[in-house]
Design a protein that fits this description.
The protein has 325 residues and is of the alpha/beta class. It has one domain: 3-Layer(aba) Sandwich (Arginase, Chain A). The protein is globular. The protein starts with 39 loop residues before the first strand and ends with a helix.
Length: 325
């Protein structure tokens, strides 16, 4: 470090520097292109080849990375200190060589994440559109199906759309079909919006997923939703996926498929904090689309949710490590 602190020795830690300084990395963590000495790896996946409406989420990782530099080191509510407890690294982007070949692109993402899983790294990802969750799950669930807590405006269990079965509205149908998800251990929270298909949520419900629509969330509250998700996830390995369009458009305008009447940022933060103790083995934040954002509001709220997910992954990683020792 060329510039050395003279008065404030806390500045020896780059994460303590003024938040407007330095090269942007996720939460100002060290950047790395190696898998050594990494417990939790944060990865951008700048891909929106699966979008069915408004493109732009390929720019999401850069925007969320920038806004994440505004966050500090300690969770003020849960007191979790992820950067002190685990080796958290920004592993850069899983950039795509063949972005115009949809299934080839998904295979590239899968190959990237298999390297991380083989190295024992817990992946935390930033999309990109929701199609990226399928190849990530192919790596995370390689040894057997996992449960999932899915916070979203949409179930994303659709089927063929305009010639493709692998768009951002279908990853979790494909994941069930491929044996990656145990649908009886899946909860989908905040589902709402208009539809052209009267059976839009049919696959989720028939396969055994717990669909918790926004009306039920609003009536019974975030604590009830968390209790349901915890009950259904049980003690097994669980993946956490957070689509930014689960938030109300007033708090997340920058997304491709907004739906009116969503979750507030505060409700989402409290919901996530209430999920402590679940065995999370990976997570993602998707669908931030900077071209439609206003004042970086969506990217900032996305970074805030990402920090809460990081705290959950850190606690789960610590718990698994404690069982092994």
């Amino acid at each position: 470090m060329i510039k050395q602190p003279e008065k404030y020795q806390d500045f020896q830690d780059p994460q303590a520097h003024p938040r407007y300084t330095g090269i942007a990395t996720f939460f100002r963590t060290p950047a790395s292109q190696q898998t050594d000495d990494v417990d939790i790896g944060i990865v951008g996946v700048p891909f929106d080849g699966g979008v069915t409406n408004r493109s732009g989420t390929r720019h999401g990782p850069r925007a969320v990375r920038e806004q994440s530099t505004l966050l500090r080191r300690i969770n003020a509510i849960t007191r979790i200190t992820p950067f002190a407890n685990a080796r958290v690294r920004d592993l850069g982007d899983c950039w795509i060589e063949q972005p115009y070949e949809l299934q080839a692109a998904l295979k590239e993402i899968e190959a990237f994440y298999r390297i991380l899983i083989t190295a024992g790294i817990v992946p935390l990802s930033v999309g990109g559109d929701h199609a990226i969750s399928l190849p990530i799950l192919r790596a995370v669930a390689a040894r057997g199906p996992v449960g999932m807590i899915h916070i979203d405006a949409h179930c994303d269990t659709g089927d063929d759309y305009m010639g493709s079965r692998f768009h951002h509205g279908a990853p979790f149908r494909r994941a069930v079909e491929e044996g990656l998800l145990d649908p009886n251990r899946v909860t989908q929270i905040g589902i709402r919006g208009t539809t052209n298909d009267p059976d839009m949520w049919g696959f989720s419900q028939r396969s055994g997923m717990r669909v918790l629509p926004m009306e039920e969330f609003d009536d019974k509250g975030w604590r009830y939703a968390a209790e349901e998700a915890r009950r259904i996830a049980g003690d097994g390995p669980t993946y956490l996926t957070f689509d930014i369009d689960s938030l109300d458009p007033s708090q997340a305008p920058g997304t491709g498929t907004p739906e009116a009447g969503g979750i507030t940022a505060l409700q989402a933060l409290r919901l996530l904090r209430e999920l402590r103790g679940i065995d999370f083995v990976g997570g993602d934040l998707v669908e931030v689309s900077p071209p439609f954002d206003v004042g970086s509001l969506t990217a900032f709220n996305g970074a805030s949710m990402l920090f809460e997910i990081l705290c959950l992954l850190t606690e789960a990683w610590e718990a698994r490590r404690g069982k092994r020792t």
